[in-house]
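Lab notes, practical 5.
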Amino acid sequence: MSILKLLHRFIPPYRPQVALNILFNILSTVLSLFSFATIIPMLRLLFGISDVNSQYVELVRTMPIKEYVEAARGNLYWWMGQMVNLHGAGSVLLMLGLFLVVTTGLKCLCAWLANFFIVPIRTGVLRDLRQQLYNKVTQLPIGYFTEERKGDIMSRMTNDVNEVEASIMSTVDILFKNPLMILIYLIMLFAISWQLTLFAMILLPVAGLLIGRIGRSLKRTSTLGQEQTADILTQIEETLGGLRVVKAFNAEGKLQNRFLNLINETRRTFTRINRRYYLAHPVSEFLGTALIAVLLWYGGGLILGGNALIDASTFIYYLILFYSIINPAKDLSKAAYGIRRGTAALERIDKVLNTENNIREVANPIALKDFTDSIVYNNVSFAYRSDVPVLEHINLTIPKGTMVALVGQSGSGKTTMADLLPRFYDVTDGAIRINGIDVRQMRIHDLRSLMGIVNQEAILFNDTFYNNITFGVDTSQPAPNGMTWQEAVENAARIANAHEFIMDTPDGYQTTVGDRGSRLSGGQRQRISIARAILKNPPILILDEATSALDTESEKLVQEALEHLMRDRTTLVVAHRLSTIRNADVICVLHDGKIVEQGKHDELLALNGYYAKLYAMQQ
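Output from the prediction step:
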């Protein structure tokens, strides 16, 4: 990715700050030229050099530029001669010193102002990139995260973004400042002596080629380093998530050795990256000093031989200006290395940002405000991969207000069938209709607003009970039934059999539940999840094995809460324990992705088929 593409991508929202930064960089560079220029008259005074042009010349705008500059310089020396005669050489040196201090002070002020306006660009671009990445991750379909490692996604959202900030955005100020400095200095150098400058420019490409050869493989190695960092985060995430299993099987040593090998490999990669990165500065400094030495030899030889077009004091000023180019040039070479590293991280970020979301909304979606009729699975087929069907030719009608249960062996497609309803995935063939409208023709937000979902694993956030229960509602709007939101939350918690244990905590509804609800038991987490669904009050409810992971006592409390929740709602239940769905209006038995039996509990037992076998095994 070229520098121009990077700037075009990140900078447009910050044009005013960029303009001010460039302005103050130009002022800072011009003021540095004036401050350095005082060296010439100081040296002339110290060495007692007099100028032949001791007469004052009237400056006329129509004069050629070269004559105008020569006349202005001659007038300056004439004025200095007058001041020396009136006040002495010491006073003139003092005035020149004061001029040097003032111009340097103004130069430093402008340099600070240039940095002052670049800071919002760096921090703003970093914020924008983080927001884009987070928005994209929250918008991607669930299927994306079954294919990608969570640790790798976390690495792209943290380490790669930080690398972009450290490597690319830290060089933006260099890119705005240093090329301007180099350009202005070069113009001045050509104005002083185009012959010397042309001689120096012949040598510069040689230095550039040497620096460029060092950084060719830096981007490739940086990509490897970011991938290894993602592997580290993946292992950390897996270790923390499976710590009980690790300890139960005495596998600490095995994981420690695996982690040690991983971080040693990462260390070797980043050692190579950083050694090459830090090589840029000394190489460019050495080459710059070598150029200065060659110029000193060449220009000094001309002056000593009496063939120079400039005098010794001007030559010293020329060398100071040329040396002043070295630091910006070094920073530019370092910035080029930084951009190579940052581009590798940015490409990994772009892989997420450019991921196509296959759950798309149509151009003119149909508004859906309420559920009034039925849910229809019409000849639905689905496959995660084209060659492995999960569901085949599913036909099912769920009238409003009924409870339909999906049962079957593991892998029969029960959860997948439920996930197709809120469009976590899109059907491969056929259609799902609500109120006679294909769900793919609706706004996704409207569709999911009609649904409440309680999963087997209750997903809570490291926040308060209150915020977890109100997660699915907009608390900026009035609470239902004329209640306050606090009253509505407490009412939902009572219905979910959660109010009592919440009030037993130190801060009641303002108590934090811990990471993923770690301070609560499984049954308590599930009841908070049910309270969340109750508060949302959706007309369609999806229960995905909501009690299968609970003990008997917790199951009883949760089942009571679920019965309150399901009252007067259209409910799709994915069931593992058949005892929880005996009263369902329709029970669908799935086998190898097909509905093989359908009916009420007693009717299916009488068939003595798949359902009867499942029921007999559980009994």
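Observations recorded by the TA: The longest strand covers residues 374-385. DSSP finds 21 helices and ten strands in the chain.
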